[in-house]
Amino acid sequence: MCTTLNALRTPSDVTPTGKAPARRPHLSVRLDRERCCSAGQCAGAAPDVFEQSDTDGRVTLLVPEPDQRHAADVRLAADLCPSGAIMLTDKP
Ligand code: SF4
Question: Less crowded by CB within 10 Å, the N or C end of the chain?
Answer without folding.
Answer: C
